[in-house]
């Protein structure tokens, strides 16, 4: 009897191995379950593609304002130009239908905090201390260490290197209003506009 107890586990393992089924393998999905998984994956991919194109549209919209003059309190060309938060509010509103607050300080309370410059994704809001107070300036990260913004009086909407000495020193942080997986799909498009499908 004592010998049988020792041999029984080995016998079960041998029979299981010869049948081609292991105890730790998950059972094969039933056809209905597989179909449900495929439909869910397809829906998720469609949502990502849709949002990715919206983000791309947002970045395109922001670039359409390049060269627009800075105007304190300005909300667009019809108002004589943009200030930093006016530009961000206009771009997010036009491209995504998102009604952001009017000031950089209020915008800094939205979305998810981004850990640092190394984690930035296209569409993230980037904040700077340009007036000796936190979150006094905002722009939109466009990828490849660049952001678009309306800098200050006497200037125009432009794209600048975020890791330049001036901006790096004044960087306060970033907020993500667009999910990371969707924004990361845009980086190749921003590097080479010829890759765009539109």
Task: List the defining traits of the structure above.
single chain, 198 residues, alpha+beta, endopeptidase fold (from Nostoc punctiforme), six-stranded antiparallel sheet, two-stranded antiparallel ribbon, 8 strands, 42% helix, 16% strand, globular, disordered N terminus, disordered C terminus
Structural write-up:
This protein has 198 residues and is of the alpha+beta class. It has a single domain (46-188), classed as endopeptidase fold (from Nostoc punctiforme) (Alpha-Beta Complex). The protein has helices spanning 2-19, 31-63, 84-96, 104-107, 165-170, 180-184, 187-191; strands at 75-76, 81-82, 112-114, 125-128, 137-143, 146-149, 158-161, 171-176. A 6-stranded antiparallel β-sheet has the order 3-8-4-5-6-7. Strands 1-2 form a two-stranded antiparallel sheet. A hairpin with an 8-residue loop joins strand 6 (146-149) and strand 7.
What is the overall pLDDT average?
Answer: 76
CATH class: Alpha Beta
Which regions contain 5 or more consecutive residues with pLDDT less than 50?
A: 1-33, 40-49, 180-198
Extended strand count: 8
Radius of gyration: 26 Å
User: How many distinct helices?
Assistant: 7
Summarize this, please?
The protein has 198 residues and is an alpha+beta fold. The protein has helices at 2-19, 31-63, 84-96, 104-107, 165-170, 180-184, 187-191, and strands at 75-76, 81-82, 112-114, 125-128, 137-143, 146-149, 158-161, 171-176. The strands form 2 sheets. The chain has a 6-stranded antiparallel β-sheet.
